[in-house]
TrEMBL record, chain A:
Statement: the UniProt record of this protein carries the keyword Nucleotide-binding: yes
Upper classification of the organism: Bacteria, Bacillati, Actinomycetota, Actinomycetes, Kitasatosporales
Keyword Nucleotide-binding part of the UniProt annotation: yes
Similarity comment text for this entry: Belongs to the ABC transporter superfamily.
Residue stretches making up the ABC transporter domain: 3-234
The protein, known as: ATP-binding cassette domain-containing protein
UniProt entry keywords in alphabetical sequence: ATP-binding, Nucleotide-binding, Transport
Superkingdom of origin: Bacteria
InterPro entries cross-referenced by the UniProt entry: AAA+_ATPase, ABC_transporter-like_ATP-bd, ABC_transporter-like_CS, P-loop_NTPase
UniProt-recorded Gene Ontology molecular function terms: ATP binding; ATP hydrolysis activity
A Pfam family it matches: ABC_tran
TrEMBL record, chain B:
Organism: Streptomyces calidiresistens
Domain spans labelled DUF7224: 267-411
Listed name of the protein: DUF7224 domain-containing protein
Annotated transmembrane regions: 9-28, 48-66, 87-111, 117-142, 149-168, 198-215, 222-242
Keywords: Membrane, Transmembrane, Transmembrane helix
The UniProt record lists the keyword Membrane: yes
InterPro entries hit by this protein: DUF7224
């Protein structure tokens, strides 16, 4: 993947940084970004997606910076981005919205239109293709967001809380999707959800209070769990310990 | 049909609005009274210009809806590869097609009603097209900044007011900033002034440039301030261009005047040219009669207000012989009282001689001041006096005319408002 955050500071209000002098190198593989609300996960994801620029420091993706337009375009073309807040684009059907997202990411109109159907089939939403996107439920809208992130064949996909609002069946679709794409797409996913952590991700980052509390491979992460048991239980325990939520 | 066209068309409200707007514009065109349209090549501009009151708010409103869609749909938050400007252009070209299509519809209907003579000049059409670009770009930016139903309504109402109200406002230059004063332009020797064609386009380009700047830079304070510069330049330039203009946005017609003949050298516009032979004969008769009573006749005469070398003769596009009898006396008399008449408390006794002189000249050139064409124009007593003078020997008519003509140029000569005693 590697994203390289070099001494990044950023906030939404002057004088109130969410991230302060944060340095982090996110390697390859599927990466889970864990942390409680307000930990700075979404902010870090926004910097990686280039929708926000750091106040100071820089973010680099495989040697690409964000200072010149050509690099920025190349960066954004490589990265699929599903923000936490997925909204319907007024006046568009589900397929049109996904195709529009593909066009925004640099695909031609024809290619985007063709690719939109493939992306919708990945998230089991083809039957809703001609429905106005504003009529979808929250969970369906998140699947549209996932389709948007995947429509232009990015090799890095950033998703901010993709499982929020998904029912168990939809969650299963997302899990299978990630597993199915693991050979050609690398995911950086910000989540609260510790289900299947051990199965889906190779790397874990735990943030709290704008700082990185843990960054390592899955085995090291699970080692922080105080007891034994199922991987799912150990992941929860490890997260609790590392995020400072325990006790 | 590929997505490129079909989906884009289905996804834009511009298509749905066009389905209402174009018939509305066509209906407006069909309801206009074209029988009074003078046969000059620019009156169509005046006939078509009111449709801007439909087109500009429609363009601004639909563009504002597109701007709102970009904001509500968090388009820039999707980390697009394409620039903000490219995204805006993709959203706005159907809006411009809608507006320009409405323009073409309006012009087509007017031309269908009145013939090719109603086709507005290309420069005016271009100016209107540029104006619609300004409204579209401005609407998009406002729609992005005010992404709610109230904002949308505000954009539509404000853009309608900007187009519909200035044509009735004073000072007059306000009328020419949005191309609204053209409904009253132009008679045969004038055309829509270059300033009136340029000013609205300049202002629209200023707005469009500001919109481009704001679209390109996003919502930041400094670009917002910087964007005022092109608006100020556009507005300032437009005001400088039109500040001295009167209510009618007219200027001298550039080409087409042809002067021929000797007594007089008659200057006619192409629309009047088919009547030259008849007019030549009529003017020859009139000049001979005027010369016989000693009235000095101008060597060059015609429908041209701006050339001091041509004595202005207000002829219509299809002048009749009676028109000559009406127009020529006016051409031989001063168009305004002398300067001394305007001074406070100043007397201008010669003013009373004007209608009698005009009636007498009408008789001399073969017209009838009491005829049906002049009904109510002259007082009967002035006509009666003119008739009695016209019956005098030529030298006495000349003396009477010379004295009263002098009275029109100063404020001290008392006019002779009676038949001079004969020897």
């Amino acid at each position: 993947m590697p994203f390289h955050f070099e001494h990044c500071s950023f906030g939404y209000r002057r004088g109130r940084p969410v991230l302060a002098d944060l340095s982090l190198r996110v390697g390859s593989g599927h990466v889970a970004l864990l942390g409680p609300n307000g930990a700075g996960k979404s902010t870090l994801m926004s910097l990686a997606a280039t929708t926000e620029r750091p106040w100071s420091g820089r973010v680099v993706l495989d040697g690409l910076g964000t200072d010149n337009r050509a690099d920025l375009r190349a960066w954004r073309r490589r990265v699929g981005w599903m923000p936490q807040n997925i909204t319907a684009v007024p006046g568009l059907t589900v397929r049109e919205q996904v195709a529009y997202a593909g066009w925004l990411k640099g695909l031609s109109r024809d290619s985007a239109w063709t690719a939109s159907l493939g992306a919708l089939s990945l998230v089991n939403l083809t039957e809703k293709a001609d429905v106005p996107s504003g009529e979808l439920s929250g969970g369906q809208m998140r699947r549209v967001g996932i389709a948007e992130a995947l429509v232009h064949d990015a090799d890095v996909v950033l998703m901010d809380e993709p499982t929020a609002g998904l029912d168990p069946v939809q969650y299963g679709v997302l899990r299978d999707l990630m597993a199915g794409l693991s050979d050609r797409v690398r995911f950086l996913i910000a989540t609260h959800d510790s289900r299947d952590l051990a199965d889906l991700y190779t790397t874990v980052i735990v943030m709290s209070g704008g700082e990185v509390r843990f960054h390592g491979d899955m085995a090291s992460f699970l080692d922080h769990a105080p007891g034994g048991g199922e991987p799912h239980r150990r992941a929860e325990d490890a997260y609790r310990v590392l995020s400072g939520a325990e006790g | 049909m590929r997505w490129t066209a079909k989906r884009r068309l289905l996804a834009t409200p511009a298509v749905r609005v066009a389905l209402i707007l174009w018939p509305m514009v066509a209906w407006y065109g069909f309801t206009q009274r074209m029988e009074h349209l003078p046969e000059t090549p620019w009156q169509g501009a005046g006939q078509v210009s009111p449709i801007l009151a439909f087109l500009a708010p429609a363009c601004a409103g639909v563009a504002a809806w597109e701007g709102r869609r970009a904001t509500v749909g968090l388009v820039t938050g999707r980390a697009p590869v394409r620039s903000r400007l490219r995204i805006a252009v993709a959203a706005l070209w159907p809006v411009l097609v809608m507006g320009w299509g409405g323009l073409v519809t309006g012009v087509t209907v007017v031309v269908h009603q009145a013939g090719n003579v109603a086709l507005p000049p290309v420069t005016v059409l271009t100016m209107w097209a540029v104006m619609l670009v300004g409204f579209t770009a401005g609407g998009y930016v406002l729609g992005r900044a005010l992404p709610h139903a109230g904002g949308l309504a505000l954009v539509v109402v404000v853009s309608w007011v900007v187009v519909a109200y200035p044509p009735a406002m004073t000072p007059y230059w306000l009328r020419h900033l949005t191309g609204g004063g053209m409904t009253v332009c132009c008679v045969v020797d004038a055309e829509i002034a270059a300033e009136a064609r340029l000013a609205p386009a300049l202002l629209a380009l200023g707005v469009a440039a500001a919109a481009v700047l704001l679209i390109h830079t996003g919502r930041r304070v400094l670009p917002l301030v910087t964007a005022l510069i092109p608006v100020a330049v556009g507005l300032g330039g437009a005001v400088v261009l039109v500040r001295d203009m009167e209510a009618v946005p007219e200027g001298p017609r550039a080409e087409g005047l042809r002067c021929e003949g000797t007594a007089p050298e008659l200057c006619l516009w192409p629309e009047q040219e088919p009547h030259r032979e008849r007019l030549d004969d009529r003017f020859s008769e009139a000049y001979a009669a005027l010369t016989a009573v000693g009235v000095e006749v101008p060597p060059r005469i015609g429908n041209q207000r701006w050339d001091p070398g041509v004595t202005y003769l207000p002829l219509s596009v299809e002048p009749s012989s009676e028109d000559v009898a009406q127009a020529l006396p006016k051409a031989l008399l001063p168009s305004e009282p002398p300067e001394c008449a305007w001074r406070a408390g100043g007397a201008f006794p010669g003013g009373d001689a004007y209608p009698v002189l005009e009636a007498w000249l009408t008789i001399v050139v073969g017209g009838d001041p009491a005829g049906p064409e002049q009904a109510g124009y002259f007082e009967p007593r002035d006509v009666e006096l003119a008739r009695r003078v016209a019956e005098l020997p030529a030298p006495e008519q000349h003396l009477w005319f010379t004295h009263n003509r002098t009275a029109l140029d100063d404020c001290t000569t008392e006019p002779l408002l009676d038949v001079p005693a004969t020897d």
